[in-house]
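Q: How would the structure tokens look for this protein?
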Amino acid sequence: MAASANPTVMSVEEYLESERHSTIKHEYVDGHVYAMAGGTRAHGVIAVNVTIALGNHLRGGPCRVYNSDVKVQLTETRYVYPDVSVGCDERDRLNDDEDVVRYPTVVVEVLSSSTEAYDRGAKFALYRSSETLREYVLVSTDRLAVECYRRGANDLWTLYPFGAGDEVVLESIGFKGPLAAFYEDVALPEGREHV
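A: Here is the predicted structure in token form.
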């Protein structure tokens, strides 16, 4: 989802209270509130497919998968809505905030023409401010392509790209599954079925 270009300014407390009663989602970055735009059908289907794949893998374990209805707190003054997030920290299951993941392990953004530059640039920089995040995953909507940025020693992020015929590997949650499962029931643009 893309954020609006004209943010509103408010405190964290004002944001959290207004968000609980809002009919649309907003991200909060250092005092600025950005309204979120909707996505395409392909975007929605891919996000659901990723949620299902990760949820099936993690079922019965300590990690939980969340869709874009749950916001992720990256720092004290940064809240975002990833398309899919995974939290494995027990502190998230014990806190009283039912609409916030404070200790994310994995976040997934499904790319579109209106969000790709933001998701690769400024939003990736926001995600890197989370101390618990281990993998940042970008899923293309116009070709069979998944990119996983994995945090290593000294906060060095390394890219692991996956294409047609590959299995996507998310080490932080022990996930390994066919990339094709992320694209089930999605019609890609002509000639883009293969990377």
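Residues 39-182 form a domain with the tt1808, chain A fold (CATH 3.90.1570.10).

The two ends are 24 Å apart (CA to CA).

Upvote if useful.
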